[in-house]
Amino acid sequence: MDQVVLCEAIGTEGYIDPEIETTRGVTQRSDTYALGVVLFEILCGKNAFLPKEADRYLAGLAKHHYENKTLKDVINPNLWNQMLGRSLMKYSKSAYSCIMDERAFWANMDDVVADLEKALEFQSRLEILREDKKVIIHNGTKCCNVCLDEKWNAKIENFEDAEFLTLNQEDEALYLPYISRNVSPFHLDLEYTKTGILKRESDVYSFGVVLFELLCGKKAADPIYLDYGGHHTHVARSRFAAGTLESMIDPVIIYPNKDSLDTYTKIAYKCVAETQAQRPSMKVVLKELEKSLSFQDEEANLIEDDECKGYNT
């Protein structure tokens, strides 16, 4: 139990533990509250005490937005655009745990430090990639890790299981027999599970599973695939080889352009090849997906032109 020291509520406005005013008691946890305020100052780019604003105390403002899941509204936009989602989540949760209403539920300093180190670790992985341009294997590609930024540009999230390789590392491969429990078994490279060899082609396999999830409108873990005869990817691969994949396509995808669909399904099929050596590089995948999109765009433009002609006649 924390030792309590009786005292007046004296200190810098905005950082004082609110319970001091009611209990007249200071404990080590009073410093925890002040640290939480400092963490939110960094995150929001605001001072702890805001005399000219309606919400004069940053702690109360941050707490309100955190609890209502609107923290983005007060976070410094520069930090918001640069921080990984998992790093931001860990940091903000740690800060909030320092200023919750009930002192009894505040985190202890050791836990706060551990959480901040984890948040920094997530972020530093991305910075290493940006600065050193090392080869990265995400090792966790799935739909929920493919996100959009504020400008609707795609970005990959959650690098906690990522592995980094130096550019001159032989074969750009890593022997990693331990499989993280965070990795979805439905997106896991089959060759990696057998050999323990993790390569960039392992991410290609996972991305291929995502492509089939988008095409079929169902998660890879959907139990409906048991009715089809097993694992989502096995079913999609066998249906493609048999020429019956269209029966699995999401009906919401109405009348796709045939060339576009063929290009898309062919590259998705190649991504989930059983061996790493048979899979294309992500550059090839991107090129084929762009080609698929161009076929669809061409058809959309033709339809639009025909509609315009109809209005003009």
Automatic annotation (TrEMBL):
Pfam families per the UniProt record, alphabetical: PK_Tyr_Ser-Thr
Domain of life: Eukaryota
Domain Protein kinase: 1-293
PANTHER family, alphabetized: OS07G0166700 PROTEIN, VASCULAR ENDOTHELIAL GROWTH FACTOR RECEPTOR 2 (VEGFR2)-RELATED
InterPro entries in alphabetical order: ANXUR1/2-like, Kinase-like_dom_sf, Prot_kinase_dom, Ser-Thr/Tyr_kinase_cat_dom
Cellular-component GO terms for this entry: plasma membrane; plasmodesma
Organism: Mikania micrantha (bitter vine)
Molecular-function annotations in GO: ATP binding; transmembrane receptor protein tyrosine kinase activity
Entry protein name: Protein kinase domain-containing protein
